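Q: How would the structure tokens look for this protein?
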Amino acid sequence: MKMSDLKPGDKGTVLKVEHMGETTGRLMDLGLHKGASFKVVRKAPLGDPMEIKLRGTLLALRMKEAESVVVEKEIPAAKEK
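A: Here is the predicted structure in token form.
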């Protein structure tokens, strides 16, 4: 699944960042590397950009950048009664 497919409130873990030239290194410098956990905070009204929270930091990513990040969506645990 691509990061761009997630909706506000969704949580996930980065599986890999696909090659985008110089942008790949910059995304990894910002903390988007394999195993990093994040939460989608919000998306702009037209969907671009999106804001994520990663290690206590808010990052805004263009949809093109978010499409290059392969993630695993966290499935919320069932609430106990």
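Helices lie at 22-29, 63-66.

Residues 3-73 form a domain with the SH3 type barrels. fold (CATH 2.30.30.90).

Upvote if useful.
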